[in-house]
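Fill in residues.
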């Protein structure tokens, strides 16, 4: 099974005059041990940070053409905790409700993310904010580079 690292950042620069954006980069080694990098998203959208983080993870997983062993690096504690602390399991068990206080937000993207991760073995790895984790700088650089590109990906669940 191919091992792939996905670096995402929902708040990567997508538009210098806009609210932020998202970017995603895949990195993997081929059978000869050579590192390959594929920028698979770039763009910006006026939306919430959590939606941007989810979109960044989704487009990374959707870009994979065969089942892979994936390490997905994100500075979104919300995204990583949803899987690592089994929030998502509870949300599904409770029919997409957190508790009595109300429903989970962004169900459309959570469902899309679950479908995208289905064929893969995915480890969600939180990289602590901008000064704490060595992989965070890598996420920022790679994802911002992707977001500075020409391609615009649209989050259809949000109107601007």
């Amino acid at each position: 099974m191919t091992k792939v690292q996905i670096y995402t950042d929902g708040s990567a620069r997508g538009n210098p005059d806009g609210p932020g954006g998202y970017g995603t980069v895949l990195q993997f080694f081929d059978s000869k041990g050579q590192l390959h990098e594929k920028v698979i998203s770039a763009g910006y959208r006026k939306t919430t940070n959590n939606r941007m983080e989810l979109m960044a993870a989704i487009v990374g997983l959707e870009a994979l053409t065969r089942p892979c062993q994936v390490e997905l690096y994100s500075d979104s504690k919300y995204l990583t905790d949803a899987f690592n602390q089994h929030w998502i399991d509870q949300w599904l068990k409770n029919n997409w409700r957190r508790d009595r206080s109300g429903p989970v937000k962004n169900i459309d993207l959570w469902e899309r993310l679950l479908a995208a991760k289905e064929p893969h073995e995915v480890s969600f790895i939180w990289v602590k904010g901008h000064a704490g984790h060595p992989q965070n700088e890598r996420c920022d650089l790679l994802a911002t580079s992707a977001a500075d590109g020409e391609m615009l990906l649209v989050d259809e669940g949000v109107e601007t």
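The chain has five helices and seven strands.
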